[in-house]
Amino acid sequence: MPDTNTANREDAFGLSLQKSNNLVKSLSNDLTIDSYSSNSSSATTTSDSLFTNPQSNQNPNPNPYLTSAAISPDFNGDGKADKVWVNTETGEIKIRLMDGSNTIEEASLGQYDLNSWSYKIGDFNNDGKTDFLLRNNSTGENDIALMDGTRVSSFVKLDTVDAGWNASIGDFNGDSKTDIFWHNDTTGENAMWTMDGTTVVSANVLDTTDAGLTATIVDFDGNGKSDIFWRNTSTGENSVWFMDGAQASKYDLQSQDAGWDYTLGDFNGDYSTDILWRNSSTGENKIWTMNGIFVTESTLNTLSSDWTASIGDFNGDGKTDIFWHNGTTGENTAWLMDGGNVSSEAFLASNNAASKPYLGDYNGDGKTDIYWRDQTNGTDTLWTMDGTRASESAIADSLTSEWYTA
Ligand SMILES: [Ca+2]
Ligand SMILES: [Ca+2]
Ligand SMILES: [Ca+2]
Ligand SMILES: [Ca+2]
């Protein structure tokens, strides 16, 4: 799942999550607690599942991680990545439908108090058009906005979930409709809402996890049902819950010490989530190619801590590639990946070191492009990618510097 670390994006927006010790009020109906079988030997339950084909859309890239409207914003379902913008002074949220470097339509979703409201994207009704989950981290309110282009086709208030709970999106039962996983960072409590459009079909309480674990939504066995990757960022311990709806099969994974951060991708194109590990102090990089709980580790070249990795697929072969930007020198390099090996590496033109790359397929040709945001003066550019070749065009109507994007 390329660049889905929404927590980081929200921090960039100043949409910080407010933590509290409040107890959950509204999750306790329809209580189903799984029997806990730690590290049981029933691995076959996960590897036998068939891959569920996602909602087909107009983007030719074969990999659902790169084309799914639940993961990459595409509000009109034309296979071209769109953009969400947040004005940090007024709280206005705006979406722009993109066609390459051109904005074909723009609309405001209104103004929100960014101290309390945050959003996640998903596709709750599986129409191939990105929707929003809006959450107020102070009051616990939750709203779903189903989108049809720049128009909100349906807006529904869901039950309130107390502050302290964080929502993650995934598709845990493989019906291609986004579900909501809830985790309370303070108490370690977990719950899941299985969704059908704007309806909560079932609300289940899951087992409580130890404090200090971070949940990331993955699909390590590639069966089209999202799984939960748990990492203890202090001890470096890792584990996974393979999900089938609200049923969790739990396994430990090998540890990776606390100095390592991770980015998700699918480097061998088998639709199972892989992990790019980066040690930001030593600059070391490695890939875990995942097949269920089986890890194949490959060591990549070391790059100094000035370099930041982003994930895309620049040659459109369904295998995610790695784009590196040097935040000190402005240098850029792309690694085309074949599993844990770099099949092609090229230095690209340097640009403004402070510019930030936002990856998406803005022209819908199946190859990930790079939107460069210059936050200081709002002169943005698009690099249309074809493998390791980049063609630059100006974004005609860049937004002013108080606007931030994801
Ligand atoms: Ca679009
Ligand atoms: Ca939708
Ligand atoms: Ca590729
Ligand atoms: Ca493209």
Verbal overview:
With 406 residues, the protein is mainly β. It is 4% helix and 45% strand. It contains 3 helices and 28 strands. The longest helix is centred in the first third of the chain and has 8 residues, at 6-13. The structure holds calcium ion (4 copies). The site of one calcium ion has 7 residues, from loops. It holds the Pfam family FG-GAP_3. InterPro entries: FG-GAP (IPR013517), Integrin_alpha_N (IPR028994). Residues 37-72 are annotated as: Disordered. Keywords: Signal.
Q: What's the total helix number?
A: 3
Taking the alpha carbons of the first and last residues, their distance comes to 15 Å
Associated small molecules: calcium ion
Kindly report the spatial arrangement of strands forming the biggest sheet. 3-2-1-28
Mean pLDDT equals: 88
Please state the structural category: mainly beta
Helix proportion range: under 10%
Radius of gyration (CA) equals: 20 Å
Q: Beta fraction of the residues?
A: 35-45%
Largest sheet: 4 strands, antiparallel
**Total count of strands:** 28
Give the overall shape, derived from the CA principal axes: globular
Poorly predicted regions are 1-55
Biased composition (Low complexity): 37-60
Region (Disordered): 37-72
Protein name: VCBS repeat-containing protein
Pfam families: FG-GAP_3 (PF13517)
